Amino acid sequence: MIDWLTRESHIFFNPKLPGAIKDRLKMANLPTLPGHIWLSSSGTTSTSVLTLYALSKEALLAAAEAANYHLEVTEKDIWLNVLPHFHVGGIAILARAHLARQRIVDRNSVPWSAESFHEWCENERVTLTSLVPTQLFDLVEFGVRAPEKLRAIVLGGAATDEILYRRARELGFNCLPSFGMTECCSQVATATLKSLESHEFPALRVLPHIEVKLDDDGQLAIQSPALFTMRLDFYPDHNEPMWRVGDWYITKDRADITQEGDTVSWLKPTGRSDDEIKISGELVNLAELNKLFHRVSGMSEVAILSQKDSRRGHEIVVALPEEAILASAKWIEAFNREVVPVGKIMASYFVEKIPRTELGKVRVAELRETLGLK
C-alpha cells in the first residue's frame, strides 16, 4: 500500500468525516510535499476543522527503527494491526514491519471485538500488537487469558488506567503503556520489556531517537528526526498551514522527566496545559480529576469538565451516561471527599452517550457544545 522508498505522497483520513471536509481532502488541495504521509491528529475534537500533520517517510521510518529496537523485534515476529490506517499507530505498524521484514495480519477495516482479536492472535500466531485502552478494557471484560504467543501489547492513544493495567496483567496480557503523538510519528516514551517482570504500573522510557526537556513554562519540548514537517488546519472552505520551525517542538503536554546517566530519560505525563484551569486563583488539572473519578466510580465512561463561573473563574462539572443516574450521587460524594475544595464537582450532566473519537478519546468540544457549557 505504501512504497517507503519513493517520493510518492499519501493522505489517510476517517471515512466518517463530515462531507464538507471529506469532499476537499484530496492531494490537489494540500501543499506539495514529496515523500510525505498526511494524517489527522488523534486529538482533533471539532467537526468543522480537521488538524492534519505532514509526516515524511524518513521521519516515520526513524520512529519505526527506534520502536523496533525498543521492542527487540526480529523477522520472526508477527504484527496484528487493528488500528485504522488514518491513525498514526496503524501507519507506525506498517513502517516497523517494513524495516524488520515482518508479516502483518491487518484487520484495521474489520469491526473490533475482543473475541475476534483472540481468534486472530491464536490462528495467526501473533506476537506483537498495538491497542488503545478502550480495546484493552474490552479484552479484560471478555475475561479470556491472553493468547500464548502474544509477547507484547503497546498501549497508546490515551492514558492507561492503572487498575485496568493490573487487571490485564492478571489475565496474562503483556502491556507496555506508552505516550505518543501524531506530531512525532507515534511513540515518544514506552514501558520496557523488563517492566513485564512485575505487575506494578511501569515507568515510560524515552525512545532513543528522541530528546526531551521542559521549557520555561513547564511544557514538554521534543527534538527528534521523527518530528512532523507541517501542520495544516483544514476547514470546509480554506486551509491554514503552519511549518514547524527550529529543532525543538514545544508541545501542550506537561510531564515529569527523570534522567538516568547521559543517555536514558524516563517520562511521566501529567496532563496537558489546556487541561489546567484556575479556580479561585488555584491551579486545577482536569486530567488528574478524571483519573480520580475513574478510580472512585470504577467506570471509564465519564468526563470531568469545567464551566465558567462569574465569582470563582471556573467550576468543576461531570458528564455521565444516563444509566449512571442512580449511582452518580454516591460517586460524586466519594470524589468530593478526596479533592481539594476548589476541585469539588458542583454540577452533574447526563447524556445518552459520551462522544468519543474512533480510538476512544472524549470529543471535548462536541460534549461541551451538547451541554451548552461556556
Summarize it.
It is built from nine helices and 21 strands.
Describe this structure in words.
The chain is built from 9 helices and 21 strands. The protein has 374 residues and is an alpha/beta fold. It folds into 2 domains: 10-270, Rossmann fold, CATH 3.40.50.12780; 280-371, ANL, C-terminal domain (GMP Synthetase, Chain A, domain 3). An 11-stranded mixed β-sheet has the order 5-4-6-7-8-9-10-16-15-12-11, with helices on both faces. A 5-stranded mixed β-sheet has the order 1-2-3-13-14. A hairpin with a 4-residue loop joins strand 13 and strand 14 (239-243). The chain is globular. The termini are far apart. The model has no long low-confidence stretch (mean pLDDT 90).
Distance between the termini: 44 Å
| SSE string | EHEEHEHEHEHEHEEEEEEEEEEEHEEHEH
Helix % is 25-40%
**Mean of residue pLDDT values:** 90
Q: Estimate what percentage of residues fall within beta strands.
A: 25-35%
Low-confidence spans: none
Strand order of the largest sheet: 5-4-6-7-8-9-10-16-15-12-11
Q: Gyration radius, to the nearest Å?
A: 21 Å
CATH topology of the largest domain: Rossmann fold
Major sheet = 11 strands, mixed
List keywords for this structure.
26% helix, 21 strands, 374 residues, alpha/beta, eleven-stranded mixed β-sheet, single chain, 2 domains, 9 helices, GMP Synthetase, Chain A, domain 3, Rossmann fold, globular, five-stranded mixed β-sheet
